[in-house]
Amino acid sequence: MRIRYLFSLLAAVLAICLGLGGVAKAQSNEGSLRGDVTDNQGGTVADAKVTATNTATQVNYDTTTTSAGTYFFPSLPVGVYSVSVEKDGFQKYVRTSVQVNANQVTEANAPLTIGSSATTIEVMAGADLVQTTTSQISNDFGSKQITELPNTSLDGSPLSLALLAPGTTGQGAGVLGEGGSIGGARPRMNSFSIDGVDDNRLDITGHSQPVIQDSIAEFNLITNQFAAEYGHSAGGQFNIVTKSGGNAWHGSLFGYNQNRSYNAMDNLDHQNNLTQPNRFDYNRVGGDVGGPIIHNKLFIYGAYQRIWEGLATQAVDQTAPTAAGLAQLKSVAANSAVVDILNQFPVAPTADATSQMVTTPACPAGCAIEFGHIAPFAPNFLNQHDFIVNADYNQGRHALSSRH
Predict the structure, then answer these.
(1) CB 195 within 8 A of CB 242
(2) b/e 229-250 (16+ beta carbons within 10 angstroms → b)
(3) Whole-number CA gyration radius for the chain
(4) Computed from CA positions of residues 63, 64, 65, 66, in that sequence, does the dihedral angle turn out positive or negative?
(5) From CA 374, how far away is CA 320, in angstroms rounded?
(6) Across the chain, how many H-helices and E-strands are there?
């Protein structure tokens, strides 16, 4: 027991130390929860105790209703909550499956019934559908949608899902920026963030840091009427919220593979007499795991993926000496160092109708060298490792989060 307690204590200290690097943030990666508490006659109920409980972590957030009968939680981590309302003289009211999304105000009203507080009324209705507190339009994609919806990005980036949002159009060739046109704005006016931290590249307009697809809890796209904290750009606000650990250990493995064996040959492949398409091999594998270090208080989550890719693309048509022409060049080379360089030259399979004149010290009048055309392959390789480690510590009204 002492060893276990010591390990938990050290983990908590580590989480706090790591969290110091992620304290500052520009934008919110949390959501808000509000509601009206009324009685049977529709009157307001003041000083009622309201508790929002995160279903995954069982962390409680408490407040009381105002004199107008309203409650408000301004900053809650993204997730599913149950909301309970208690007041002497009324039956206890519990509302489950309330989804809190990033950058949104979720409404969950609570009508109380006169009766014994020992009696509980449980409503499994989630949040109210009509949002009356903001004109901001947010488009939310949860982890299930991010991993299962068709995606044009090989790395599974959720940014391309913006095309499913209203008022978004695709991006034409030669247009600067990323993410498409949001509400008629240019793609270069879009802004990107991860867990509330700026993710905009400095050299060109677009996102900087890739995020593992399975580690994303929510992708939130704000298209208009966003708050002042999103003053970086006038286009769409692309916000990614990563996952946190919960009270139960869970994990998964994933893999994605695409290669030339799956692809049919096109007309150019047949024209070049290829027996199979040019090389296009792409692999993405990894896994994630999350759980509690201290139940109801300290949670950890981590994910890793490796991407490796191999492409064989044909370069622009070029000229090179034939085998006979290369032998001629070596015979008139000034020294052995030049011969070593010539040994690295590609060789054209056939000669053109005309030769090229080359002048060297050994051939001052110029020598006719056979040249031909070649279309060399330009292989492209990628080997990438990505990881993320998240730690979350909750103590009453205080919370500390680390994102690495």
Answers:
(1) yes
(2) ebebbebbbbbbbbbbbbbeee
(3) 31
(4) negative
(5) 7
(6) 5, 25
Q: Residue 389: what pLDDT?
A: 97
Going from the N-terminus, what domains does the chain have, and what CATH number goes with each? 2-134 (2.60.40.10), 318-375 (no CATH)
Question: What is the model's pTM?
Answer: 0.69
CA distance 218 to 295: 24
- Backbone φ/ψ region at 26: left (φ over 0), alpha (ψ -120 to 50), beta: alpha
- Contact criterion met (CB below 8 Å) for 302 and 383: no
In angstroms, rounded to a whole number, what is the distance separating the alpha carbons of residues 57 and 21? 23
- Strand 79-86 with 49-54, pairing: antiparallel
How far CA 78 is from CA of 102, 140, 212, 227, 291, in Å, comes to 6, 11, 18, 19, 16
Plot region of 206 (φ>0 → left; ψ -120 to 50 → alpha; else → beta):
left
Query: Structure tokens of 92?
Result: 């206890």
Q: How far apart are CA 226 and CA 49, in angstroms?
A: 31
What tens digit of pLDDT does each residue of 319-368 get? 888 888 888 888 888 788 888 888 888 888 888 766 778 777 777 878 88
Single-letter amino acid, residue 33 = L
Name the nearest CA neighbour of 98 among 71, 121, 125, 70: 125
Q: Is 337 helix (H, G, I), strand (E, B) or coil?
A: helix
Going by their DSSP bridges, the two strands 377-395 and 298-314 should be labelled as: antiparallel
* SS3 (DSSP) at 267: helix
The rounded distance, in Å, linking the Cα atoms of 342 and 352 is: 20
Q: What pLDDT is attached to residue 119?
A: 76
Closest CA relative to residue 351, chosen from 331, 328, 334, 335: 328
Kindly list the distances between the CA atom of residue 222 and the CA atoms of 102, 140, 306, in Å, as whole numbers in the listed order.
10, 9, 30
pLDDT tens for 376-396 read 767 788 899 999 999 999 887
